[in-house]
Give the backbone structure.
Amino acid sequence: MEAILEMRNIVKRFGDVVANDHVNLKVRKGEIHGLLGENGAGKTTLMNVLYGIYQPDEGEIIFEGRKVRFKSPRDAISAGIGMVHQHFMLVPRMNVLQNVILGYRTPSDPLINHKWVESKVEKLSEKYGIDIALYEVVMNLSVGEEQRVEILKALFRDVKLLILDEPTAVLTPQEVDSLFYALKSMTKSGLTIIFITHKLKEALKVTDRITVLRKGKNVGTVITAETSERELARMMVGRDVVMDVAKPEVEFGREVLRVEDLWVKDDRGGFAVKGVSFSIREGEIFGIAGVSGNGQKELEEAIAGLRTPARGKILLDGKDITKLGVEKRNEIAYVPEDRIGVGLAPSLSVLENLMLKDFKKYRKGLVLDYEKMEERAKELIEEFSVKTPSLHSPASTLSGGNIQRLILARELSRSPRLIIASQPTRGLDVAGIDYVRRRLVESAAKGCAVLLISEDLDEIFQISDRIAVIFEGEIRGIMERKEADYERVGYLMAGGLEVAV
Amino acid sequence: MVDAGFIASLLASSIRAGTPLLYATLGETLTERSGILNLGIEGIMITGAFTGFAVSILTGNPWLGVLFAGFAGMALAFIHAFFSITLKANQPITGLMIVLLGLGITGFFGRSYIGEVAVYINPIHIPYLSSLPYVGEILFTHDPLAYIAVILAAVLWFLLFKTRYGLEIIAAGENPEAADSVGVDVDRIRYISTLIGGFLVGIGGAYLSLAYAKLWTEGMTAGRGWICLALVIFSGWMPQRAVLGAYLFGGLDVLSFKLQATGVGISYHLMRMVPYVVTIVVLLFSVIRKRAAFGAPASLGVPYIRGRKQ
Ligand SMILES: Nc1ncnc2c1ncn2[C@@H]1O[C@H](COP(=O)(O)OP(=O)(O)O)[C@@H](O)[C@H]1O
Ligand SMILES: [Mg+2]
């Protein structure tokens, strides 16, 4: 089949980092081509080079049989390339229509021909099943809707090649399904799609062929129908990976955490958590699934003691801790979603970050006993295999996976009763993900109660004993993992209500 | 005496005193909508005031004075644009530099013009309409520049909210990355908006020396540039609201003279302070409450660098 795009020997450097190292990519007309790789593999960089955001240091691009050089996104757009970025490129205060036509000239230019836009959008909506209210302000849209606006923006410009950068990261399973459906129908009408992801299952589900990147280099291109999850994982990571952390069944002990009718406000003063109740027992991992921004942050902060609830009770081992400050909640380990902002003091050293909560233990008169602290820190670094240039390097210089290990080392080493882990593996590589999940499971086995808050359904299903879904600040159903399935959880995540059968 | 006649003359002079503020506020509104914060208004206004005055003397044509005041404003705005857009420098600091530059240059070159007499722009009394009781005096006894300012506000409103250009300007100020990603040339939009903005601020200055005060003195803008910065916030970055704001502040400015003339027992100096106090309060509020709450462009004052890692 004919190639619509060929990228040859693309090299892109950022200082010392070689983000793309002689990468080749050949995409056929009318296919969905997966671009697979771990975080930091260089997927986004490669596509930004194609889209004219970056200029390649070496290499060439052939689009529709002609050699091209895009100096800016404008050139790429006029050649017929559209891109839905990982972080959406929308103007929140403008409405959908304004966002769609931004940079576009309607027939009555410079005036805006609303009628013309409306009818063109209507045709597109019918053709691809993308439904969206044109005059809604983007600020008020859900993430899924924002993504539809982004796709509409590209289709509106009659693109031939559409790039989607990690489009499923923010979607519920149902939204993912309808996105995949729309993508398939686009290829039927002749569009070519490059689909970027780091999730194997998705790549297998929706693509025709897959190119794998690892550490800026391309590992190869495979035909989706002829490959397997195992082969892709090996290409992605560079060695065989076993991804089999599983939560063993254990006898649950006493109740550790009890949350009763909890109401918590967000920064703007509205209720983000509305009457949430649940409890977690010794040895149990309680997973809360949900799309980010549905009150998870406020809930975890209330339990960790960073945010005072407006109403309701939090009990730890039967003791009311609702009003206690963070420093009085010693039995709680907190692995926050915002690792760098909340989890660390980024400019302090690795040593100081490890000891952050234990300075009192190491007082020597008026000063700190650094010798003793270093001794302990060395043990922890060993035990949690934190890779750091030295104990005295600023914590901010560590990579994402090592930052998470450092936080785990500090939090888990203090023999907590409860662990709050929020999006604990987001952005980590396969080895890091595996490590974090293993640690959580081990801690539970030792009798800890674990509250796992995650957007990643695979993660929730892999290690939770019970699963709850949070939507707009409410818990929509709590179920045993054995009774739960993706469909039901996805349905609840999207705001569906459980009907009594 | 405070009677209907007094009120009418107060309103009429509010419009006159508000017109230079209106030009400068409209100019800064356009600039800020595109994402560039130009704190240099005070320096650009005074440069416009001096350039207009000098050119009017040299050529005998006050309209040429106004035109050149606009160009002078544009030249200073270009310096700001070059530093902020091309060199991605700190915008508040560059703006303050423009203030000092404008005040310094005009102080130096303006010395020999103090006390000179130029050809001024005079009011025209629109036949019939101007003889309407009260309304005639308030609305129909102004000079052409005062009317042009209002038309300009309408044009700017139309441009910003009804055309593609406006969409691109607003997008450049809200989310330049998004604008760039759909092929909008953010730097170009910001340059043009800053230059036209500077042109209007310069005209505001010329209005002061050629139509309002009808003289040239050093530092004659007397902080009006800062007032306009507050007016932009006060009007929520909307040209249509800038008209009201400018006239209101113009009114506060003249009220002190008018009341003094009627012998009302309020301290003249206290009255003179009012616009400045209000300005400080507005600026203070905009700092305390997040600027976005007032409708500030989300990327105001933030340099745009393509592909910079967030
Ligand atoms: N603008 C940039 N400046 C510096 N480094 C960058 C920039 N963009 C990406 N990188 C680096 O390039 C590498 C590849 O990043 P990216 O293309 O975003 O990976 P992916 O999309 O596969 O997760 C990473 O090491 C990242 O830190
Ligand atoms: Mg990426």
In short: The longest strand of chain A covers residues 3-14. Chain A has a mean pLDDT of 91.
